[in-house]
Design brief:
The protein has 286 residues and is α/β, with parallel strands linked by helices. It has two domains: 5-178, Rossmann fold (3-Layer(aba) Sandwich); 192-284, ProC C-terminal domain-like fold, CATH 1.10.3730.10. The protein is built from twelve helices and eight strands. Bound molecules: NADP nicotinamide-adenine-dinucleotide phosphate.
């Protein structure tokens, strides 16, 4: 595995005016919805972001929730689209790309969210020279605190690359990664929220077992996890140094840390991330 994923280029949030951009989201579901939302927050106008789900009624429901516009058909959504987001399930995405051949506006950028479907597969299904980007977001983009890995296809110009970064500029963090790095990205960001949610749930339950009311335990754990992450990010201090800083000799924290290591929490977290990355690698083999 390439270990340079953490050091991938992260383009600065570029000053690109998205106010006139036309976007079509084909499949605004669990992930297409938050992606549409982050693009709206970044500056795409609701009347310019058209949603085409599997039925007009579903498109209208999603559009109403997001403050976007329901397309009456996929063709209507695509007719003027500068950017087309493919938010359908991975098994549907290549058939959809083939269908788009006749409907894609000239010069449109296609952004695929599909896990395990490569740039080459999508490019092959679309007209020659189509600009294709793979985006791998995680769910905290829905609150502007997520991470998105962006993989750039061969036909994407620098201006189009900048535009895609602008579209994800309010997602939290958008980084350029290679398709080889996407598996590590899934372990360290894509699937990671679920692991963190599980750890937060466990911490909260234990707070309750120790005698705290659930809402207080919940708030304290969430604030502390958030605060610890923010402290590391804002100070640049290494986690081990921060940990040592709160570990007095023979004190409460070292006792807790020793128990954490005895229970294999570090190994468990590593195993979860490795399993997610391996599963992503298997998926991409088809
Ligand atoms: N969920 C995640 O955490 C996550 C993370 C990273 C990437 N992804 C990727 O995101 C993609 C979508 O996954 P999801 O979890 O968001 O699935 P989902 O919630 O089932 O959403 C799929 C969407 O596609 C729509 N759709 C289905 N058939 C369609 C068609 N023929 N034409 C137009 N729209 C159609 C569905 O519309 P209806 O609602 O009308 O059925 C729905 O809005 C996948 O490729 C997945 O790999 C997901």
């Amino acid at each position: 595995m390439n270990d340079s994923v953490a050091a991938s280029d992260s383009a600065p949030a570029p000053a690109v005016d998205l106010g006139a951009l036309q976007v079509a989201v084909i499949g605004a579901g669990n992930m297409g919805g938050p992606v549409a939302r982050t693009m709206l927050v970044a500056g795409v106008q609701g009347e310019h972001l058209l949603i085409a789900n599997s039925s007009p009624a579903s498109s209208e429901r999603a559009a109403a929730v997001l403050g976007a516009t329901a397309a009456s058909s996929r063709s209507e959504a695509l007719a003027k689209a500068d950017v087309v987001v493919l938010g359908v399930k991975p098994y549907q995405v290549l058939d959809l790309a083939v269908d788009l051949r006749e409907e894609l506006a000239a010069g449109a950028i296609v952004i695929s969210l599909a896990a395990g479907i490569t740039l080459a597969q999508i490019e092959q299904a679309l007209p020659d020279g189509t600009a294709v980007v793979r985006a791998m977001p995680n769910t905290p983009i829905s609150v502007g605190e997520g991470a998105v890995g962006l993989m750039r296809g061969g036909a994407v110009t620098d201006a189009q690359h900048q535009l895609v970064h602008a579209l994800f500029s309010r997602a939290g963090m958008a980084v350029d990664i290679t398709e080889e790095q996407v598996h590590a990205f899934i372990g360290a960001a894509g699937s990671l929220p679920a692991f963190v949610f599980t750890i937060i749930e466990a911490m909260t339950d234990e707070g309750v077992r120790l005698g705290m009311k659930r809402d207080l335990a919940s708030s304290l754990v969430q604030q502390t996890v958030r605060g610890a992450a923010t402290m590391l990010r804002d100070t640049g201090v290494h986690p081990a140094v921060a940990k040592n800083g709160v570990s007095s000799p023979g004190g409460t924290t070292v006792q807790g840390l020793a128990a954490l290591e005895r229970e294999g929490v570090r190994a468990g977290v590593a195993a979860a991330m490795a399993a997610a990355a391996e599963s992503s690698r298997e998926l991409s083999k088809g």
